[in-house]
Specification:
Among the domains are: 1-185 and 215-236, Rossmann fold (3-Layer(aba) Sandwich); 421-529, ANL, C-terminal domain (GMP Synthetase, Chain A, domain 3, 2-Layer Sandwich), CATH 3.30.300. It has 16 helices and 28 strands. The strands form 6 sheets. Strands 2-1-11-10-12-13-14-15-16 form a 9-stranded mixed sheet, sandwiched between helices. It has a 5-stranded parallel sheet with strand order 4-3-5-6-7. The longest helix is centred in the first third of the chain and has 17 residues, at 33-49. The protein starts with 7 loop residues before the first helix and ends with a strand.
Length: 531
Amino acid sequence: MNVPMVLTDFLDRAVRLYGEKEAVISGEQSFTYRELNDRVNRLSHGLKNLGIEKGARVAVLAPNTPEMLEAFYGIFQLGAVMVPLNTRLKPDDYLFILNHSESKVLFVDQELLPLIEPVRERLETVQRIVVYCKTGESEDLNYDKWLQAFPTIPFNRAEIEEDDVCSLLYTSGTTGNPKGVMLTHRNNYLHALSTMHHLRVTDRDVYLHVLPMFHVNGWGAPFYYTANGARHITLRKAAPEAIFEAVNKFGVTVLHMAPTVLNSVLQYYEEHSPPAGDGVRVVIAGSAPPPAFVRRVEEELGWEFIQVYGMTESTPLSLVSTIRSGQEGLADEAKTRIKAKAGYPMIGSDVRVVDPTGEEVAMDGTEVGEVTVRGHGVMKGYWKNEEATEEAIKNGWLHTGDMGTVDEFGYIEITDRKKDIIISGGENISSIEVEGALYDHPAVREAAVIAVPHEKWGETPHAYVVLRDGQDVSAEDIIAYSRDRLAHFKAVTGVTFVDELPKTASGKIQKVHLRNAYWDAKGEKAGKYVN
């Protein structure tokens, strides 16, 4: 008899083996795995009482909290589909996602409820709103009071197949409306097994939820850390001081975050020198950092730096950039350079970099192609969008839109997004490479590079730069610095100094907003240029 791989297995395992162990801590709240399971059963009974059945969509809008964590398993026991919502969207975005997903119930944190109020009357399918940490009077259900009305007895689960959709994760559409990525129980189950191996997850781990649980790399954590009986520490707001406080108070061993968040952690450490804990692994997903960034993390903080690569459509992780035994003999600088790459394929993921004809590029670290993925993590498709699904998945291969190279050891390095490559005088320039050079400047805190028009070269790199506190450098200084470290055609030709860079809720820099800002400034007003 084939037993389907369904995500409820993971909490079941934790309850059997670690029932009395502290499972989740949030502020003054603390639950063992058995207590967490009791709350999950209450939630499932409550959802059934609200008319939720297998296949129904249930949306959740919340920061990293125990309520968000228990929603995963409470929703899955019914065979329902979870729709986690980005906490940094606008009301009209929520209106589109909730209506497009046809969500029937919405769980929302009290702090975020004002984002829903402006569109409440236009919600077409949401029948009930349940509020976490509710204050004041309203017709909405108070989550804690509502939950207590239902029993802790085991819920009679729906018959779930491993290819059933468990989640709809909406990508942050930079053009047009966001797309709902359909991930299955099998997608997430096999991804968890692979990831827990590559990240060396054990029951001794203490995981700090820095990356939002609505983000797909934060989304996976409730599965592989729960399956191993690790402790979950949730943070409503992941400020650097709160991260260091949690690391030291709870003995955190592993945390995931975006590069920009880690950068803020480094800046805080530089200014305040707090204890950084022992034996900490930091898992970074996003644009590959410059090697200097990796060195700072490992030498200053003493944390192990683990770069991973993936996207929502691949559940997400496909690559990991740890040092393999064959590369142990390399010089420290070479190993640091490897750690800054996207990495080699994780178990269960077939990742290839191909040219426009579909042929794999040479393993020379030079030839550029598109990163494609085939394996257990590739999504079922986009919800109600067959055209976009067929465009993304061709002959079983997910086309990521990321461009990269493969070195002699099989490590893939992302050179740029297709849309972010700068073509100057017929030469392709990686904005990531230019940003890496700028990050070495002692006055630069953050940098992002986009293409801007140029009469002679077609387009050239333009940098948006956030300076460190107390620093005062000119655009000419930054331009000269880039020219000293890069081939002349790759150097930035203009600089705009800004107080902050636009980011997604998970910390990724949104270059589309920088392009819009550039055009809004009408060319030369956006910064200083040299020819």
